[in-house]
Amino acid sequence: MRWRVTEFSRAVFAAVFVLLAGMAGAEERESIFFDVKLSGFKAGELQIEALTTADRYALAGRLESTGLLNVVRKVRFDARSEGRTGAFGIQPTRYEEETNTGSRESAATMEFRRGVPQVRETRPPKPPGPLDVDPATQGGSLDPLSALYAVLRAVPEGESCPERTRIFDGRRATMVTMTPVEEPEAGTLQCKGVYVRVGGFSEEDLRERRYFPFTMTYRPRDNGLWQVERLDVTSLYGKAQLVRR
Questions:
Q1: pLDDT digits (tens, 9 = 90+) for 48-60
Q2: Angstrom distances, CA of residue 128 to CA of 100, 105, 119, 132
């Protein structure tokens, strides 16, 4: 069964309200919705629902295949994350994910203690492999959903193009780095960046591609914040885009 966006929004906001129940202070909601395109054709949808207070955040996200890709293989990735916000940015405390690739289903849970991730559960159980990155070495990393939110959320102009974001998914480590474009398109802010496979990948994976360059374009919102309108990236399947709905 494939949910409509409104159904997903109601379900995830119910989840994030539970995560932040009892927290004091004003709450802010943000919905982030992108179409995923490959070679100009729609291949998927990405949605993140966020609820934040002065010092906490909760997220629920879904990435799923659509269009022609959905005919070949239905893929869905659901995730939830919660944590703290403050002077040092986003600091996750818990992360959960469920993945359905069409041929395999899996789930995982991580907790963060003093910024260090700890893998609590994987289903089906997966013993550590020889290539797995030691979670104890990944202090300061974000989980995949928190990292997406950190990059795609609306921000003041001075907080666009985050310089470096470290990401850990429980087995693999990656990193995103960005720098501002000095002469962006008129009326926009732009970043040049690269997504890097850092650890936990086989030699074959790294030979296939280690660096994924991208360009991210922001446009202003009515409230004075800037939001990502488009992200163009070189993927394993050719030129891909995230285009805000």
A1: 999 998 899 999 9
A2: 21, 18, 10, 6
